Structure formats: C-alpha cells, structure tokens
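User: My instructor asked us to take a sequence, write out its structure as tokens, and then describe one feature of it. I'm not sure where to start. Here is the sequence I was given:
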Amino acid sequence: QAPADQVTYLIMGTAVPNPPPMTAKVQEYLTVQQWSSACAVKDIDLFKALPEDLELNVDGWREWIEWPNPEMQDLPGEWIKKVSEFSKLLLIRALRPDRATAALERFIRTTLGDRFMTQEPFSLEVTFPNSTYQTPLFFVLFPGVDPGEEIEALGVKLGFTETKGNFVSISMGQGQEKNGENVLDRFTIEGGWAFLQNVHLMQAWLPILERKLEIATEQGHVDFRCFVTAEPPGLPDQMLIPEGIMQSAIKVACEPPTDVKSLLRGAWSLFSQAT
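Assistant: Let's start with the prediction itself. The structure tokens for your sequence are:
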C-alpha cells in the first residue's frame, strides 16, 4: 500500500514558491520549475536528500532526466535500490512531468494488468438495469462528451419520451429551480424520467435536490428515475455535489476515449449485432 503523502503528491503535485538558489551545476540541466518541484518532494522522507543529490550527482541525474523515456530507465546511484516503482512516479512527476502519464500507464499495466488500461465503451443500456427509483444516475461531464442523446434513445426504447409526458429534460440554470422541483415531485408519484443537466450551476439549489431524492428513496414510484449531469470541481479539494447524492447514485465519468482503439470500440458499440 502506497504511503498517503506519496499518493497526495502524485495526484496534486506541489512546488516550493521560493526554493533555495540553484547552483551553477544544477542550472546546467534543471529548470526553475524542476528545481522547485524537487525541493517540494523532499518533504517526503524518502526524498529528503534529493535536492542535495541533484547537486552532487549531476552526471547521473542529467543522464536520467534527459532520456526520452526516463520511466523505463534505472535511477542513478543508490536511488535504484531504495525507490519502489510507485515512488519512482513521484520523481517523474517532479523532474519530468511531461512523462507522468506514460509512467503511470506503465505502472498500472505492469502492476494490475492490461485489462485496467482498456477503456470499455460505456453503455447506458447495460448500466441502466442496476438503477432503481432509489439510485439516481450521476454523470460527471468532460469536454466533448454528452450523455443526453443516449439517455433519450434509451427512453424511447423503454417507453419514456417527452411526447408521452413521462420524460422531461431540463438544462438547469437560474430560474429553473421550480421546474426541477415540480418534475421531481410529479415523477416521484407517477413514475417517469427526470433528466437534470448541469446541476453544478445550481449550488444553492442542490440541498433541495438532495432532499427530493431522499423522498423518492423512501416513497418513490417504481418507474421513477433521475439522471443528473455535472462538471467536476475545478480544484481537488472542492466538493460541489452534496455527499448524500454522491453516495446513493450510480456514478459515470463521461470521459472521451484517449486512443484510436477505444474510439473505434466506442463507435462500434453504437451499432447492434444485427447491423
């Protein structure tokens, strides 16, 4: 199990705003940002000697840092013996941040296996049977991805449409509070799908949404479903969505595929086997 301080640094990364002056030797191969990051990571016991060693073992560190793929290379000096593969990620994060993603992918592949690096195309039709009137479906939005069409298409297939009056989609924003509350109240009693988009824009209203969903959990119609979308918070320590909603919901991260294979698999998944 990785130490908590190392996990925190890997996720957030830090740099010392006013690091000690760089010596002439260090200036030959490190940028100010790299030096600042090295001075920050030394707060972790394992790396407390890193800034000093960057000055003493210039040739070894320069060679490692200048490799096109340093994550594949042995660390210089004694570091190879005392730094685990996970801890090595922190050095990549500090000294070669451009290789952090590649290094993390390599670590996951070698530690957990290739299956953890394969992004299965998301299918709402597969996920939906796991939902009930007590479990909203919460979609975390990223640029270029919108689950709206898939939600509406599944609704048509299962008999929930705007034409029938049992599907309502609302783009949440100023002035939409009452509309959101009304549709939740009605569908909680009668059954229907409420699709509330961009609820991150409605911070003051979210406690009301949380309470409405609690009521649905206690006495909702079996055909009630609530689909919610929101963008992720801007900072790691921010919490935009009430904890009660996050705990009860099925959470889906709508991230676009990052490789050609996943893009093709996602495209093929839109076609039925009979096509």
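For the description part of your assignment, you could build on this observation: Residues 260-275 have pLDDT under 50 and may be disordered. Try explaining in your own words what that tells you about the chain.
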